[in-house]
Every structure is written in structure tokens, then in C-alpha cells.
Design a protein that fits this description.
The chain is an alpha/beta fold. It is built from 12 helices and 12 strands. Helix 3 crosses helix 4, helix 4 packs across helix 5 and helix 4 packs across helix 7.
Length: 331
């Protein structure tokens, strides 16, 4: 039990302490932060869902990279990708951003970074020598090295990585750095529950557990959620109800974001009468704020994809076209 007077005193002390961390974690995407009323908040469970291949891992990794660059630790629980693969994306993304700033061409791609990591390129030496052959390569490696000590990548398995294991990792990072980390789960349905429950009960338990973790450690948890079959049907716009496994996902979460390919969710007339039959829409991902306990819901922002470089254009823009729930739309 907490006295309201104690809360007010604690907040006042935090505001008067110049070294105290704010209870907000900006995502690194200004328009998304605006829609979320500042960013990801301490003690919240934030879900991101969407179709396969749309770039969900790339988006949350970019948010994690932004947090680490700002000096805040990150625990990235990865069931999908190896640590080396995630760092290849980080290096390529940093190089692409450097290339944009200096107006140079041909940014370093994830594929080229992978070749350097695996020594399948034609250059001798270590990473500096191999990446130095590419525009922005050395600067990107230097940039990642600056925050690499704050980015904890926990390679996880569906048979071993339980909620208790994740909580232990978060506690270790909190003790080491003295501040709560951003916790990223890729993805939620893969967290291990040793008692072999049915899927709905399992997902409910995981969702409640991650929410409890965010409250206990006063940190934001950002988890990717898989979609059910209905949410992946052609011509269907995914909604919060399409997250796979349990109604607890939408109920327990503080923020629900749905990621869609723009070409799949714009009204039909944009495809029929737009330039190149709307082909350019495929280069954009729309993020819809389906639920937001700390602000308004229904916000729709879009970001240009550069998945070959492991990133999205962070600036983005508000969606100006008419979006629909289904591909078949009658004006």
C-alpha cells in the first residue's frame, strides 16, 4: 500500500534532481512519440503486432538503439534472431543515417555487413578493415561501439526462456546500471511456460507476467505479438482483436500498435488512380495506435521502409490517404 503523500514527495524529489531519469522512453520516432504523448512509459506493457515481413523486429530494434544511444540500458529478448544478426542491422542502420546526413550515395546494406561478419567478402582483416571498404562503415561501427555496452541481447528459446529468466536478466541490468532498462520481447508468444498450458491460458499468463514485470521494475516492456490467421488474410486490415492467443493481450496492454503495409490498407481509389497503381505505397508502413491508456487512440503515422539497411525513416509523416478496414471498399 502506498500513501498518496509519499508519491507526491517522490515525484517532487525526482523533478528537483537533475540526474534523475524521466519516466518516459522516447522511441526515436518523433511523430510516434507525439501520438504516445511522449514515448513509452515506465510500468507499461506496449504491444506491436503486424504481418510477417513488415519490419516489426527492425522497428523495435530501432527503438532499442535509440534508447541505448541516449544512455539508457536495453534488454532485448530475442527468440527470432541471433545477436550477430541484430548487430548487423544496427551497423547498417547507423551507416545509412550517416550517409543521409553527408549526402553520400550507396549506403552500407545489412547484406554487406553480414558478409563482413562472416568473412565472405574479399577483404582481409577484422571488422574495421572490412567495414572500412564501405561508405559510412567505420563511423557506423564506432557509433554502435559507443552504446554496445548498454545493449543486452538475450538469445532466447521457447523451451528455456521463462518469465522468471527474463525478470532475472532485467534485475541484473538494473543492479549493474542503477536505472531500469527498456525491455524488448521478440516475440511474446514464444516465452516459455513450463506447465504446458493451452495457448489461450499460456498467452494470458505471459501477458500478465510481462505487465507485472513492467510494474515491478518501473520500466516499459515493448513486446511483438504474433497475429492469428484471420488477421493475415489477404485484403484484411489487422486489428487488436487479431493478436494471437488471448483477449488478455488487448485488455492488459497499455499501448497496442498495429503495423500494416500501406498498400494493404489504403482505400481502393488510391490504388486505381494513383501513380504506378499505388506501387509506391508498398515502401511505407503504417503504424496505428489501437489503444493508448496515456493518450489518444486512433493515431495513424507512416514511415518509409529501408529494410535493406535495417531501418525506417524516423521522421515519418501523418497518413493523409483514406484507410479502410477491408480491401474491398465502396466510396
Amino acid at each position: 500500500m502506498t500513501l498518496a503523500s509519499d508519491v507526491l514527495e517522490r515525484v517532487d524529489r525526482r523533478l528537483l534532481d537533475p540526474d534523475s531519469a524521466a519516466p518516459l522512453w522516447p522511441t526515436g520516432f518523433p511523430l510516434l512519440d507525439e501520438a504516445l504523448d511522449g514515448g513509452l512509459r515506465a510500468g507499461t506493457l506496449n504491444l506491436l503486432a503486424g504481418a510477417q515481413g513488415e519490419g516489426k523486429t527492425t522497428l523495435v530494434l530501432q527503438m532499442a538503439r535509440s534508447s541505448a544511444r541516449s544512455g539508457r540500458p536495453v534488454v532485448f529478448v530475442s527468440f527470432e534472431l541471433e545477436a550477430e544478426t541484430l548487430l548487423q542491422k544496427c551497423i547498417s542502420a547507423e551507416a545509412a543515417e550517416t550517409t543521409e546526413v553527408s549526402s553520400l550515395s550507396t549506403p552500407l546494406t545489412v547484406r554487406q555487413v553480414r558478409a563482413a561478419f562472416e568473412a565472405s567478402d574479399t577483404v582481409a582483416g577484422g571488422l574495421p578493415e572490412r567495414l572500412g571498404e564501405h561508405i559510412g562503415g567505420i563511423d557506423a561501427l564506432t557509433a554502435v561501439s559507443r552504446y554496445a555496452g548498454l545493449l543486452y541481447i538475450y538469445r532466447s528459446t521457447a523451451t528455456q526462456t521463462t518469465l522468471d529468466v527474463i525478470a532475472g536478466a532485467v534485475k541484473d541490468v538494473l543492479v549493474e546500471h542503477g536505472v531500469a532498462p527498456l525491455v524488448v520481447i521478440d516475440y511474446l508468444q514464444k516465452v516459455c511456460t513450463p506447465d504446458h498450458r493451452g495457448e489461450e491460458e499460456k498467452v494470458t499468463r505471459i501477458t500478465e507476467g510481462l505487465k507485472d514485470l513492467s510494474i515491478e521494475f518501473e520500466c516499459p516492456v515493448l513486446a511483438i505479438s504474433a497475429s492469428d490467421r484471420a488477421g493475415l488474410e489477404p485484403g484484411t486490415r489487422m486489428r487488436a482483436r487479431n493478436m494471437r492467443g488471448s483477449t488478455a493481450l488487448a485488455y492488459e496492454a497499455d499501448v497496442v500498435m498495429i503495423m500494416s503495409n500501406k498498400a494493404d490498407v489504403v482505400a481502393r481509389h488510391h490504388l486505381m488512380y494513383g501513380a504506378n497503381n499505388g506501387e509506391h505505397f508498398k515502401d511505407w508502413s503504417v503504424v496505428t495506435i489501437e489503444k493508448n491508456r496515456s493518450g489518444y487512440s486512433g493515431g495513424e503515422v507512416e514511415f518509409r521502409k529501408h529494410l535493406e539497411c535495417g531501418r525506417f525513416d524516423a521522421n515519418g509523416q501523418a497518413v493523409s490517404e483514406k484507410l479502410v478496414d477491408e480491401r474491398v471498399y465502396t466510396e
